[in-house]
Amino acid sequence: MAMRGSTSPSPKPGASLDAGTAAAPADAAPSAGAHAGAGSSGKRPQTLARRACDACRARRRKCFFADGPPPQAQSGSQPQSQQSQSPPVQCHDCLRLGITCSFLVPTRTRGPKRRKRLPSTPRESSDDQQPDQQPPNRPEEPEWHFSAAQPDQRKDIRPLVAIVDHSSPFGPSPSHLSVDGSHHGMSPVLAEQHASPSVTSHPFPTDELCSRALLHVILNDYLDLIYPLIPVIHRPSFRASLASNKDVDDPEFLALIIAITAVTVGLLPSRFPVYHQSMAPDAAARFKTRMAMINCCIDICMRLRTRAYWDQVSQRKWAVCYLLSVGCFQTGQTNRSRMLEVESMQIGRLLGIHRISDYEGLNYIETQLRKKAFWLIFYTYAHAYHQCGREERLAFIDHTMLHEVSFEALFPLQVDDEQILENKILDHPPSPTSSPSTARAGPAPQPRPAFTLTSGFNLHSRVFYKSAEIALSPGNCDWARRHTPEEQLARLRQLVQEIRYMLDDAPGPMRQWASTGDSGVTENRSHTLESFPPRNARDDWGVIGRGAEMNDANAKALPGQVEIMRANLHGTHLWIQSSLLDRIDVLLQEIAQRATSPAESEAAVAALKANWAEREDVCRQMLHLLHSMHYSYLEPNGLYLTYKVRDVGVALLNCPYEAHERPARRAAEYMQDFARALSRLDRSEIVNTSSLRSWVDTDREKAFST
């Protein structure tokens, strides 16, 4: 195609001269003698061309030809043999300077690319350039536009894998997806080049939310960072379903991946700018905040509910409600989160996940998923039991159904998902507990099973279960009224001691004083995304990662996942101790108020000060946990960890010492440290009112107005 005119932007002369050389070789140009003879025979008529070659355009001149009118550009449809036999044509200046003229070199259209119109649009259909009319050596031009019309299907690209990159939040990505190091965003060029043909030619139901490549990145972040805390899927089955695009014809799976997107966006605020930069312009304009994207996810899931939606229940429908509830809670939408949480509890009741007898007839995968679902709902029960301001919430477990619950039988097997098949469970290889040096020194101890993510999940569940032991004991539904304050005080102190030391036999990497083994983590305390530690750190995790090869994606992600679970475990462990100490303080103050003699009052005050020493130790441990853990490991725990830290710090306000005493001064310093930590942890977009009455009774408002 010839150039439109000289008013179009001109390319660099050097590049175009090279192209002109390829089209018209210098040895085929007319001789200088012929040109000189033409000049001596008299002035011949000159014709000024309407456009210019590259050399003339660089000198801001138009081409003119001394032998007649300017030649016409060769058509792309002209046979190659005729094009090669046609004599080369040069303008007057190029002929005089002895350089190659690019006047007839076919060039591509300059300027912005045309928008691809639908086939039904007749306007400008004749001007669209066909692929067969393009020159064979046309340079490829990056396409940075995001539009509803997808590019044509290409045959020279490989399909996009189910999960693009298993190391997206921790380091540079492989060749599957380009991540710019300046902002850790997705490159639209490579995202389009590596997209599967089905992505480019057929829209997915998830395109309403984001592109397919970005969806894979978000789901990848869930598998790497959030799955250890919220294991609502079976990883191999989930990856297989995603690779086969099961969401196209399965509304349940579509709702599941949309809900996973919502919880990932809610729990990872530092990743949202990365997601936002990789969105199409229209989606980026709609999703300026995490709350907007999460609400869109909820709307999509609600539209998938047909009239007969609740006629069938499944673990995936439970997971959708639970994940959406968690996502809403992370952005401060307490009331909406509460209602979705009630839905998940109702589905759990219908599934019978609290009765081990109802598990008969399920395959191994579904059995383990429902056991994990029970403990995830149990966490909400324990939070309502310990946390203030949650009395209005419904409880999944009541005392009428305690005889149906066998808690020990409901703990899932401590094996990875890859070893759980539908009809059997593969043997998990044992891992030695000693190093080679200790093995040479003496007889090796008995091997124990390798640490898995389910092992850490069970540790966390046992801490919650132990904390609610009083409420779950048969006949203790009215425990506070049936026992005297002294009896309650003795039982609570015993429970605090049991919980304090219950993690002494935890695996080494899950202990409170464990080291990450990555020097880069301790050197950089920044909470930005660039401070995520690399995956390829040295493996000093003991039994961690021995069950799989380190080139496996799950094994490479395991050290970071263990750190995330360790932060969650010890944050919960310290928060529960602080909550029980609060109850002890209330009982001690009640006993002091009922004292009839000065000796009893002094004994109560002394007990309060002794209890303060334990509380101060809990605060020190919590601060050590926050300062020793990298932010990338604290962030996936979300506002749940933030509120636990806040509850521990608020208890320092009830100091029994005078302001000038050293314990009171230490308490003031601790509170300053807690405030700095909370300013880094609390990334909620609005004020979260989970412990307040955030709903309005409109009927009562009308009564007051009249």
UniProtKB/TrEMBL annotation:
<dbReference type="GO" id="GO:0000981">
    <property type="term" value="F:DNA-binding transcription factor activity, RNA polymerase II-specific"/>
</dbReference>
<dbReference type="InterPro" id="IPR050797">
    <property type="entry name" value="Carb_Metab_Trans_Reg"/>
</dbReference>
<feature type="compositionally biased region" description="Polar residues">
    <location>
        <begin position="513"/>
        <end position="523"/>
    </location>
</feature>
<feature type="region of interest" description="Disordered">
    <location>
        <begin position="425"/>
        <end position="450"/>
    </location>
</feature>
<feature type="compositionally biased region" description="Low complexity">
    <location>
        <begin position="13"/>
        <end position="42"/>
    </location>
</feature>
<dbReference type="InterPro" id="IPR001138">
    <property type="entry name" value="Zn2Cys6_DnaBD"/>
</dbReference>
<dbReference type="GO" id="GO:0006351">
    <property type="term" value="P:DNA-templated transcription"/>
</dbReference>
<feature type="region of interest" description="Disordered">
    <location>
        <begin position="106"/>
        <end position="151"/>
    </location>
</feature>
<feature type="domain" description="Zn(2)-C6 fungal-type">
    <location>
        <begin position="52"/>
        <end position="103"/>
    </location>
</feature>
<feature type="compositionally biased region" description="Low complexity">
    <location>
        <begin position="434"/>
        <end position="443"/>
    </location>
</feature>
<feature type="region of interest" description="Disordered">
    <location>
        <begin position="510"/>
        <end position="534"/>
    </location>
</feature>
<protein>
    <recommendedName>
        <fullName>Zn(2)-C6 fungal-type domain-containing protein</fullName>
    </recommendedName>
</protein>
<dbReference type="Pfam" id="PF04082">
    <property type="entry name" value="Fungal_trans"/>
</dbReference>
<dbReference type="InterPro" id="IPR007219">
    <property type="entry name" value="XnlR_reg_dom"/>
</dbReference>
<dbReference type="InterPro" id="IPR036864">
    <property type="entry name" value="Zn2-C6_fun-type_DNA-bd_sf"/>
</dbReference>
<keyword id="KW-0539">Nucleus</keyword>
<keyword id="KW-0479">Metal-binding</keyword>
<feature type="compositionally biased region" description="Low complexity">
    <location>
        <begin position="73"/>
        <end position="89"/>
    </location>
</feature>
<feature type="region of interest" description="Disordered">
    <location>
        <begin position="1"/>
        <end position="89"/>
    </location>
</feature>
<dbReference type="GO" id="GO:0008270">
    <property type="term" value="F:zinc ion binding"/>
</dbReference>
<dbReference type="GO" id="GO:0003677">
    <property type="term" value="F:DNA binding"/>
</dbReference>
